[in-house]
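Hypothesis: this fold can be encoded by more than one sequence.
Test: take the structure tokens below, design a sequence, compare later.
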């Protein structure tokens, strides 16, 4: 085989745990600043070179940067690799116990430096690689919309191996469940279940483990807040100022058992499938982005006041700033807001990771799989940013946090006061599958 046709992969990683107190993001907390570290945050990179093209997948333990900050990070990596930003995919774990990069510029700059270092390490380690895909049983999540049974039960597995002996180098797992086992009373930096799962799988299989989040907008962890216990913490020296000595010694961690149960569930699912996966030479590898425009209607002030009243009554969310923004838009005659959504594909042999920045409901990924006719098309959220929930048409009738109330909190980051219109999910699925088919046809 011509060396031009041999795929090469390199891996690099970095610790992106903040070294100071930072503002957290993911829950409303009365004092939303970290008080220590429960477990470290990781940034991991997988760089591929194949037929003259370089592609890079970056996974980060973070709720998700804004699309703008994600673009900055991807641009830096693209420059380093002498490629385009559409050949760099950033995938966020969506842990709710990580820094708010939008409010912590020094932390964001730190992550960018660490990402560049990790990519340089990956480039140094480039070597020939085979790959194989498998699907395990994802049993570690439940639909949190109580009247819905929708759930994507696919645990996607990409195994990258050494051609000579078939030994695993990297396992990439695609899971589907919010990384918020540690709840709003946790003030410690944590990768949530991603961290403990990686540790256990690396010990079991002797290779690096990367994890990405699927379409988990309405999916919570199955094991969640059932047990609590107090553990010793390793806090920053600065914790001596402003926090009690008792808090520095002990803290209430949400469901330590639940973290372990979730990790065990994933480990068992991978172990059941991996031995039967057969590594093959890479014959198709590409990373590409397609952009689509979607619309969000601006509510009338009457509608907005009703939504804000429900959010305050049902969830304790103060919508004062959001109401002010809606009133301003109404006064300016703005009835619709528009956003350009990037749909990015990482297609390798017969499997494909397809990502958008939104918190997509799991039904959207299931619909894309069924329309494509293959379980190896994985539509994921939290890719290249985190930019509001994307409900299905049916979810609009239910309302609630995922459809309406979250916008009252995060609208400044999204650039919209409402979610995309109810027909957006259906349009997205059609575009995802259509573009995926064209991508494969163009590649031959």
């Amino acid at each position: 085989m011509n060396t031009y046709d041999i795929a090469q992969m390199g891996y690099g990683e970095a610790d992106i745990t903040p070294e100071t107190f930072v503002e957290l993001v993911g829950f409303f907390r009365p004092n939303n600043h970290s008080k220590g570290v429960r477990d470290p945050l990781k940034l991991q990179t997988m760089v591929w070179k194949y037929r003259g093209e370089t592609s890079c997948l970056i996974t980060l333990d973070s709720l998700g940067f804004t699309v703008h900050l994600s673009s900055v990070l991807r641009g830096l990596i693209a420059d380093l690799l002498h490629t385009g930003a559409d050949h760099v995919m950033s995938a966020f774990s969506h842990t709710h116990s990580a820094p708010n990069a939008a409010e912590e510029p020094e932390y964001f700059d730190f992550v960018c430096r660490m990402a560049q270092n990790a990519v340089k390490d990956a480039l140094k380690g480039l070597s020939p690689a085979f790959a194989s895909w498998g699907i395990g049983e994802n049993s570690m999540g439940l639909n949190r919309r109580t009247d819905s049974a929708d759930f994507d039960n696919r645990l996607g597995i990409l195994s990258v191996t050494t051609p000579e002996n078939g030994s695993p180098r990297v396992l990439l797992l695609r899971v589907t469940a919010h990384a918020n086992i540690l709840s709003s009373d946790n003030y410690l930096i944590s990768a949530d279940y991603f961290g403990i799962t990686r540790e256990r799988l690396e010990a079991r299989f002797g290779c690096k483990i990367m994890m990405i989040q699927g379409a988990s907008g309405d999916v919570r962890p199955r094991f969640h807040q059932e047990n609590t216990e107090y553990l010793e913490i390793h806090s920053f020296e600065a914790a001596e100022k402003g926090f009690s000595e008792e808090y520095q010694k002990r803290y209430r961690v949400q469901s330590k058992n639940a973290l372990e149960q979730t990790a065990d569930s994933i480990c068992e699912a991978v172990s059941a499938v991996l031995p039967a996966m057969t590594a093959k030479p890479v014959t198709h590898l590409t990373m590409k982005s397609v952009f689509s425009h979607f619309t969000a209607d601006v509510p009338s002030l009457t509608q907005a006041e009703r939504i804000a009243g429900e959010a305050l009554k049902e969830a304790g969310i103060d919508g004062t700033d959001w109401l002010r923004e809606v009133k301003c838009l109404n006064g300016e005659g703005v009835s619709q807001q528009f956003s350009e959504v990037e749909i990015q594909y990482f297609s390798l042999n017969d499997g494909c990771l397809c990502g958008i920045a939104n918190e997509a409901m799991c039904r959207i990924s299931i619909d894309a799989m069924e329309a494509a006719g293959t379980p190896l098309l994985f539509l994921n959220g939290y890719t290249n940013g985190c930019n509001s929930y994307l409900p299905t048409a049916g979810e609009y009738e239910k309302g609630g946090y995922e459809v309406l109330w979250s916008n009252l909190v995060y609208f400044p980051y999204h650039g919209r006061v409402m979610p995309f219109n109810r027909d957006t999910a259906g349009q997205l699925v059609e575009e995802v599958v259509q573009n995926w088919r064209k991508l494969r046809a163009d590649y031959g």
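The chain has a mean pLDDT of 90. The first helix runs from residue 67 to 81.
Hypothesis status: open.
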